């Protein structure tokens, strides 16, 4: 006697709809991350931080705040090392801002990542200046990391599908139908003059909007 085929759960069907719907509405990162969740590998996933910078103005502001809050201290660190080295040769000092928790504002990255940890890390380079004043440059990257999971008590609104409780999506992990995973990524390297009186403004390159969740420009191909 042939067994009846088990019907997919409502939660599984809605998760599949989120993955398919994201491609339809242009939220390819949300589709890709949900598909990876349903793939159950648990492998870490790379985040395209340059694309997040382009898409989310709030994140760009956050990065500029990281630099503004540390500019004086990082500059002094570099100048102190420069002085210790004799004041006549280039020195390089690693720096890193304190990690803070934030939530992305753009629909795509809110649905793909949501709340996360972020900071800025880089190198302060001090070189002798022709005018006798040392040049102090910061080469930095914006970093983002988080765990792709679903917290009970929260919910998210998805195009077409509507409001989905986090507990519903989280149940897929608990029942073995999906697997949580770590996400992380760093931007390209940007440069800011720490001697400048003008606040930093990060300007990510135009990434374009071509491709789907399988586009490797959105992360490692093996994590599709």
Q: Rg to the nearest angstrom?
A: 22 Å
Largest sheet: 7 strands, mixed
* Uncertain regions spanning at least 5 consecutive residues: 1-7, 210-224
Mean pLDDT: 85
**Which class of secondary structure composition applies to the elements?**
alpha+beta
Distance between the termini: 39 Å
Order of helices and strands: HHEHHEEHEEEEHEE
**Can you count the beta strands?**
9
Total tally of structural domains = 1
Given the structure, what is the number of helices?
6
| Approximate strand percentage | 25-35%
Helix content: 25-40%
Shape, principal axes of CA atoms: elongated
Molecular structure report:
The structure is a single chain. With 224 residues, this protein is an alpha+beta fold. The protein has one domain. The chain has 6 helices and 9 strands; from the N terminus they run ααβααββαββββαββ. The protein has helices at residues 10-25, 28-39, 49-55, 57-84, 107-112, 166-174; strands at 45-46, 91-96, 100-103, 115-127, 135-148, 155-158, 162-165, 181-186, 190-193. The strands form 2 sheets. Strands 1, 2, 3, 4, 5, 8 and 9 form a 7-stranded mixed sheet that branches. Strands 6-7 form a two-stranded antiparallel sheet. Strand 6 (155-158) and strand 7 form a beta hairpin. Helix 1 (10-25) runs antiparallel to helix 2 (28-39). It is elongated, with a radius of gyration of 22 Å. Mean pLDDT is 85; it is low at 1-7 and 210-224.
